[in-house]
Each structure stands twice: as structure tokens, then as C-alpha cells.
Design goal:
Distance between the termini of chain B: 52 Å
Largest sheet of chain A: none
Oligomer: heterodimer
Low-confidence stretches of chain B: 1-19
Strand content of chain B: under 5%
Number of strands of chain A: 0
Structural class of chain B: mainly alpha
Largest interface: A-B, 56 and 76 residues
Mean pLDDT of chain A: 83
Radius of gyration of chain A: 21 Å
Shape of chain A: flat
Helix content of chain A: 55-70%
Helix content of chain B: over 70%
Number of strands of chain B: 0
Radius of gyration of chain B: 19 Å
Number of domains of chain B: 1
Number of helices of chain B: 9
Structural class of chain A: mainly alpha
Low-confidence stretches of chain A: none
């Protein structure tokens, strides 16, 4: 077994352990007791603004491509 | 007036995908405790999905076959769409999704591994390392997701998705090399991959918040499968992007 496998395999195993241990614990109060949490019921999420920003991201990346190629 | 300026400018969503899966106390207050979503249950179900994914990935790693990969990729896409629109069926579709994605990932990993030996374990280690470190940041409150955070991450994800769709369209319908720089191993190509890895990783924070709030609000039990499924989708995407990034770095 080479060093690459030992290091990254160890990292994966350690991360698994952290995920299974910490994932089952409640988040800290600074995370759960705040006013600006995400409202997952969908009442606040704006689909139109999401599409607008997504299109902006897309156009920036798309035109960046032509600048790079030219 | 909302404190989120974008919401005031553009208005509120009526999209069913982001809609009312999740309406706190009113709908689910009367559910018995045993039928409510918990953190414990969601983490265990994520473990089941990961095991299924690894098991089928081992099959296509040992028997690399393009048909098996194609079946996994297309089957996974269909199952993901079904799960997104019908979360009540997640108990059945999420394990099938994980198994089919395993078939796809095993095949694609063996292709990368044959070109760059050792890349698979690096990508696996970095993917789960990212998962664990972001979980620590979320649980301790270092990263605090807000509505604007969600808006930016979902929009960036949609923008990247659109770019990939256009790229596939250009490749299929004679656009030459597609959108060149996203495949290049130059500084821009690597920068683009880093950006995509960053967005994919931040999607994990949204998944953690969804799961945390779902268990706080006592959503129905089947949402444990849905939470585990959303984590799997993000992990699969993150793994693929890390694999591409490492390949670009090593081909220089």
C-alpha cells in the first residue's frame, strides 16, 4: 500500500467517522436560534430571481469562453 | 418590506420543486414520534445509500462496460427526477438512484484511474473530507446559511447546469469542441473547475440545513430518505467535479 492510498484512504475513513458521529448531533444554538434561517416551506424563495442570476452566471461563463478562445 | 432585497425586486416563488414539502408545525404536529424525521434516521439512511453506491461501483469497476455506465447514468437521472417531484416515493427511488449512480461512477472512475493511477482514492478522500469539514462548520455555526445564501448557491448551480446542457448540445449537434475552456487544463479550466467544486461543496450546507430543520419540524419519516437522497446527489456531483479537477491538475 502506497502513501497516497494510506493518506487519502485514512482521510476518507476519518471523514466517515466524523459524519456518522457529528451528523447525529443537533447543531449549535448559534446555528438554530437565529432570525435569518432559511425558510424551507418555499414562501420566501424567489424562482424568478434565481433564474435571472443563473442566466447571468451562464452568460458570463459563456462569453468568457469566447474571450479566452479569441 | 423583506430584508432580502432580491425578493422585494423579483417577487416570491410559485415553483413546485422548491414549494411546500415542509410546512412546519401546522401539518405534522399530530404525527406520532416514531413517524417523524430524525437526524439519526437520516444519517443511517445516508449510510445505506453510500453502501449501495459503493457496492454497485465495485461491480462496474471490475466489469467496465459502457452499456452499464449508460444505464446507470440515465436510470439515475430518471430516478432523481421522480424523487424530486414525489418525495413520498423516496424510500423506494433513493436506494435505486444510489445503486444506479454507483454503476456510473464505478465505470467513469476506472477510466480516470487507467489514465492517472491513484486518482480514485484521492477523489474519494477529498469528497468525504469536504463533507466532514463542512458538516463541522455547519454544526458549530461557522457557516450560517440564509435566504440570500440559498439564492446565490441555487442560482450558481442552475447557471452551471445550463452551461453543461449547452455544452452537451454543442457537442451533439456539431459545435466542435463544445465550450472549450471548461474542459481545458489551462489556468481558466482549472479555475472553472475550482469554482464548480466550491459551489457543489456549498450545496452540502443547504442539504445539512434542510435535514436539520426537517428533523426540528418533525417532518414525516419518508423525508429521511429524501434528505439522504439530496446529500447523495450533491456528493455524486462533488465527487465527479473533484475527479475532473484532479485530472486537469495531473495532465499539466
Amino acid at each position: 500500500m502506497d502513501l497516497n492510498t494510506i493518506f487519502f484512504g485514512g482521510l476518507a475513513l476519518l471523514s466517515f467517522a466524523v459524519f456518522f458521529y457529528l451528523g447525529k448531533m443537533k447543531a449549535s444554538k448559534s446555528q438554530t436560534e437565529r432570525e435569518d434561517r432559511i425558510d424551507w416551506s418555499g414562501r420566501k424563495f424567489s424562482f424568478r430571481s434565481c433564474i435571472t442570476i443563473a442566466l447571468a452566471f451562464f452568460l458570463i461563463l459563456y462569453f468568457l469562453n469566447f474571450f479566452i478562445l479569441s | 418590506m423583506s430584508k432580502h432585497q432580491a425578493l422585494d425586486t423579483f417577487g416570491r416563488s410559485g415553483n413546485p420543486v422548491f414549494g411546500n414539502k415542509f410546512d412546519g408545525d401546522a401539518q405534522f404536529r399530530d404525527l406520532p414520534v416514531a413517524q417523524k424525521m430524525t437526524l439519526d434516521g437520516t444519517v443511517n439512511k445516508t449510510g445505506i445509500l453510500l453502501s449501495l453506491c459503493f457496492a454497485t461501483a465495485a461491480i462496474s469497476w471490475n466489469i467496465p462496460n459502457p452499456a452499464l455506465m449508460g444505464f446507470g447514468a440515465i436510470g439515475g437521472l430518471i430516478l432523481a427526477l421522480i424523487t424530486m417531484f414525489r418525495p413520498t416515493s423516496a424510500g423506494m427511488t433513493a436506494p435505486l438512484y444510489a445503486a444506479s449512480q454507483g454503476l456510473f461512477l464505478g465505470g467513469i472512475t476506472v477510466m480516470f484511474e487507467s489514465q492517472f493511477p491513484g486518482i480514485a482514492i484521492q477523489a474519494i478522500g477529498l469528497t468525504f473530507g469536504t463533507l466532514a469539514s463542512l458538516l463541522v462548520c455547519y454544526k458549530t455555526g461557522i457557516i450560517k446559511p440564509t435566504e440570500n445564501f440559498r439564492l446565490m448557491i441555487v442560482s450558481a448551480t442552475a447557471g452551471i447546469g445550463l452551461l453543461y446542457i449547452v455544452n452537451i448540445g454543442m457537442l451533439l449537434f456539431g459545435g466542435g469542441e463544445g465550450i472549450g475552456f471548461i474542459h481545458s487544463n489551462g489556468i481558466m479550466g482549472i479555475g472553472f473547475s475550482l469554482f464548480v467544486v466550491g459551489i457543489a461543496a456549498l450545496n452540502l450546507v443547504l442539504d445539512f440545513d434542510f435535514i436539520e430543520q426537517g428533523s426540528e419540524n418533525g417532518l414525516p419519516k419518508h423525508m429521511e430518505w429524501f434528505g439522504a437522497f439530496s446529500l447523495m446527489v450533491t456528493l455524486v456531483w462533488l465527487y465527479l467535479e473533484i475527479l475532473r479537477l484532479l485530472a486537469k491538475l495531473r495532465s499539466n
